[in-house]
Amino acid sequence: MSTDYQTLRFAYRRPAEQGSSAPPTLHPVVVVGAGPVGLATAIDLAQRGVSVVLVDDDDCLSTGSRAICFSKRSLDIFDRLGCGDAMVEKGVRWHVGKVYFQNDLVYSFDLLPESGHRRPAFVNLQQYYVEGFLIERAQQLPNLEIRWKNKVVGVAQSAGGADDGAAPVMLTIETPDGEYCLSARYAVAADGSRSAMRRLLGLESKGRTFKDRFLIADIKMEADFPSERWFWFDPPFHPNQSVLLHRQPDNVWRIDFQLGWDADPVLEKTPERVMPRVRALLGPDVNFEIEWVSVYTFSCQRMDSFRHGSVLFVGDAAHGVSPFGARGANSGFQDAENLAWKLDLVLAGRAPDRLLDTYAREREYAADENILNSTRSTDFITPKSPVSRVFRDAVLTLARHHAFARRLVNSGRLSVPAVLRQSTLNTPDRDRFDGAMEPGAACVDAPVVRDGAQDWLLAHLGGRFTVLLFAAKDGLSADECVAIERVRSLDVPIDVVVMEPAESSNSGVGAERLKADAAAHGARVLLDVQGLAAQRYGAEAGTVYLVRPDQHVCGRWRHPRPDDLESALMRALDRSGAP
To answer: Measured between alpha carbons, how far is 401 from 554 in angstroms, rounded to an integer?
Structure first.
């Protein structure tokens, strides 16, 4: 029997600090907010060996679908967090979207047109399932303590700090037993769009609020619609507005109806208003029941800075976008993975505190990209002037027959990871490369074989810095061996992955030498069984990539010099003094 996450309640337990006269224990990290992004941050840190306290002011998971579209990049992150299989097994896979204008199909698109990826482009999965699977993973980690019914009501940072300049954070926590103090070297604010942490520090998000209202209706029905994203502009059943339809697990379907700014949010949630709208879309003969409804407005905004001393903001606490394009939760998971590895290395003394400034800069850049795309989508979907409406409808009319117009149709540019091209942690290309795997890009997957068994490349990247070496079929060169040993001699955990070329045989002198060379340097060997890894990474014999713990490329070379990897790793740790 599956868990009913919507009714699940978690027990409050009196904290050890409650009523104690002893000075508060200085915890390495306290994460505030047990939503999806807070859970992902806490799990990532705990898997790295960091002790984490996660506090939340409630004792339950979210209700209703809320965030439902989880991208391939998020699924890759879930794999690393140990719960990807559960997400994909429960979720509804999809990669095709269709756009309608009135009753006519304008065009369709495929978000994952090529094969050779472990995970689909998207899965649809109600937010309470995502939180539930993350909670189950969190409960397996002995160094992650979750405290329910622990509400942050005060935040203070001391004037003094650790030797590296990080000032500890003192949180005042309200519980059913009264207040107590919780001290941490760093606090991660993952407490959502109405962040108490942001308010208590006197901070704000700035941006644009869109004057429109949308109705979410989660309905349960048996239907033979395909698992696709359907979006209507100005349909006959809901004229002058837009409608979005998505399938979810358990025969639940999510429908978003645009209502207009003048709609009464209380009235629109009543069955008398919801039922006719749904019936107009589905037709008179479809049986359904309403599971959950909500009316929402939205803003595209962010904080000026995601770092304030030893308090770091992630997810909706740091930035907000419209729901068109599924960029909210998905970008929050990317915040979490960017921050976790940096916090781990700073806490371990392997990187300076200023490395955390790069978290803020990189994710502020990504937030700006998401806000730009989200704002453009919203302006197209909800034109606010007669001229904008004429332009949009002309584009939709032309898109029926002309490819150039289809590129202008914007029903939500769907979430993709930001390419952190401007990051100071990157080592710029010295050599000429083709393909998308430039410094700052998130690594893509490819099928491989390890020890005779089918596997996936991304399963061997991430968590730690990784040297990815595309070897010649007859073994490693002397320069490659020296470069590996020099980077291995540093005080930073690092993995080495050697890609055996597709044309290589699993037997013979060359293959045996390659395996022997790899074993001598503590490297694992993967066979590029279809040649897709080399193709997607623009690699040839001797090509080397340095991959960050969050699976982003930070350097690549055709034939690295002995000191290239060492210099790039120091730069990626912000230890090189590079500007």
So the answer is: 42
CB 168 within 8 A of CB 185: yes
- In this structure, what token pair is assigned to residue 482? 């020296």
Closest CA to 362 of 564, 571, 131, 552: 552
Q: Give whole-number Cα distances, 537 to 94, 533, 544, in Å.
A: 26, 6, 10
**Whole-number Å distance between alpha carbons of 549 and 526:** 19
Q: What is the pLDDT of residues 320-340, one digit of tens each?
A: 988 877 888 999 999 999 999
CA distance linking residue 427 with residue 358, whole number of Å? 15
Q: How is residue 533 written in tokens?
A: 């890894």
Provide CB contacts within 8 A for 450, sequence distance 6+. Answer: 460, 524, 525, 526, 527
Residue 67 tokens read as: 């965030």
State pTM to two decimals.
0.94
544 within 8 A of 560, measured Cβ to Cβ? yes
Handedness of CA 193, 194, 200, 205 (dihedral sign): positive
Q: Residue 6 class from Cβ within 10 Å (0-12 exposed, 13-18 middle, 19+ buried)?
A: middle
pLDDT in tens, 476-498: 888 888 888 888 888 899 999 99
Whole-number Å distance between alpha carbons of 252 and 238: 21
Phi, psi at 499, each rounded to 5° = -90, 115
DSSP state of 541: T
Query: In this structure, how many other beta carbons lie within 10 angstroms of the beta carbon of residue 431?
Result: 10
> Any bridge partners for residue 108, and if so which?
98
> What single-letter amino acid sits at 468?
L
CA pair distance 265, 228, nearest whole angstrom: 28
The strand ranges marked E within 340-477 are 447-450, 453-456, 465-470
- Predicted local distance difference test score (pLDDT) of residue 508: 58
DSSP β-ladder status, 319-320 and 288-303: antiparallel
Which of 205, 218, 211 minimizes the C-alpha distance to 244?
218
- Smallest CA-to-CA distance from 191 within 316, 307, 40 is with 316
Number of Cβ atoms within 10 Å of the Cβ of 242: 21
Write the CA distances from 465 to 315, 334, 345, 458, integer angstroms. 24, 17, 11, 13
